[in-house]
Amino acid sequence: MTNQKPNANQRRKARKLALQALYQWHVAESPIHQIEAEFLVDNDMSKVDKEYFCDVLRGVPARKSELDEHIEKYIDRNLKDLTPVELAILRMGTFELVSRIDVPYKVIINEGVELSKAFGANEAHRFVNGILDKLAQDLRIAEVKAK
């Protein structure tokens, strides 16, 4: 068995599933371990970065308050006024900016934008892009300045 580094497509699939699972967590308020188990059983995880999926899925709820504080600095409305999809994408992106320094901030922003184009309301991608960009300039200041 080889320890291959997951490729971008496997990460993208992990983010997509994590978004769906976090949406379910937010809307149904099911326990995160139950949602994780369901997703691992109900989805073909052979082409997914399963470790990344689990890290994001466990990390966002565990650090929800901290993530929300970061997001609230840059939005012009209450968190409860965001759609569940927007909120899940912003929490995921913020979690990655804070916890996954192995992932370049531009990748995190781009992935958030792509998820919001696929699952969000019209123009949600512009909102997500703006907020994640501001968060990156705050949370990844050294990386942003180096570019």
Automatic annotation (TrEMBL):
<comment type="similarity">
    <text>Belongs to the NusB family.</text>
</comment>
<keyword id="KW-0889">Transcription antitermination</keyword>
<feature type="domain" description="NusB/RsmB/TIM44">
    <location>
        <begin position="12"/>
        <end position="136"/>
    </location>
</feature>
<dbReference type="Pfam" id="PF01029">
    <property type="entry name" value="NusB"/>
</dbReference>
<dbReference type="InterPro" id="IPR011605">
    <property type="entry name" value="NusB_fam"/>
</dbReference>
<comment type="function">
    <text>Involved in transcription antitermination. Required for transcription of ribosomal RNA (rRNA) genes. Binds specifically to the boxA antiterminator sequence of the ribosomal RNA (rrn) operons.</text>
</comment>
<keyword id="KW-0804">Transcription</keyword>
<dbReference type="InterPro" id="IPR006027">
    <property type="entry name" value="NusB_RsmB_TIM44"/>
</dbReference>
<keyword id="KW-0694">RNA-binding</keyword>
<protein>
    <recommendedName>
        <fullName>Transcription antitermination protein NusB</fullName>
    </recommendedName>
</protein>
<keyword id="KW-0805">Transcription regulation</keyword>
